[in-house]
Amino acid sequence: MPIQYYLVREDVLTESMKKTLQAKALLESGQAAQVNDAVSQVGLSRSAFYKYRDSVFAFHSIVKEKIMTLSVFLLDRSGALSEVLKTVADSGCNVLTINQTIPLQGRANVTLSIETAVMVIELSELISRIEAVAAVERVEVIGSGM
Predict the structure, then answer these.
(1) pLDDT (tens digit, 9 = 90+) per residue, 124-145?
(2) How many Cβ atoms sit within 10 Å of the Cβ of residue 93?
(3) In what order do the strands lie in the sheet with 107-115?
(4) What digits encode the pLDDT tens for the residues 6-53?
(5) Three-state SS across the chain?
(6) Could you list the residue range(s) of the whole structural domain that residue 32 is in?
(7) Cα gap 92→63, rounded to integer Å
(8) Same domain, 114 and 85
(9) pLDDT tens digits for 92-121?
(10) Domain count of the chain?
(11) Separation between Cα atoms, residue 62 and residue 97, nearest integer Å
């Protein structure tokens, strides 16, 4: 039976899983040279680290070199889509496809497929920046793939 993967919110992870992710980040960034240093800094046992290290991954680490599909809910305002696209471009992403519904009751849905291989910020930061656009009501990640 093939291994299945799930995407879960941080607030449902155990404390050991969260600390494992923190320790992995310290090792990847060079802020900790060895596992002992990393687990000590985050307050985690080595056994817990080794239990979870190959099983939990930060979302941003799995979206590099992939195509993400975002669903953006927009108010029907002049220049709204242009501002969203500028935000995406400023992050270093390449827009591959754009599909927009006809605005109904003053709202439209835009589905963007973007290449994230050379993104200069984290995906969570990109989503925050898109959500900060005045005409954006909501942004959802609806898919990812190669």
Answers:
(1) 889 999 999 999 999 998 877 6
(2) 24
(3) 94-100, 107-115, 67-75, 136-145
(4) 778 888 999 999 999 999 989 988 999 999 999 999 999 999 999 998
(5) CCCCCCCCCHHHCCHHHHHHHHHHHHHHHCCCCCHHHHHHHHCCCHHHHHHHCCCCCCHHHHHCCCEEEEEEEEECCCCHHHHHHHHHHHCCCEEEEEEECCCECCEEEEEEEEECCCCCCCHHHHHHHHHCCCCEEEEEEEEEEC
(6) 11-57
(7) 14
(8) yes
(9) 999 999 999 999 999 999 999 998 888 888
(10) 2
(11) 21
Would you say residue 42 lies in a domain?
Answer: yes
117: its two tokens? 């291989």
Residues 71 and 44 in one domain: no
Do 75 and 133 share a domain, yes or no? yes
CATH code of residue 93: 3.30.70.260
**Same-domain status, 83 and 110:** yes
User: How far, in Å, CA of 39 to CA of 41, rounded?
Assistant: 5
- Compute the C-alpha angle 40/46/47, nearest 5°: 150
Instruction: Answer yes or no: is pLDDT of 75 > 90.
Output: yes
Q: Which two tokens mark 35?
A: 């596992």
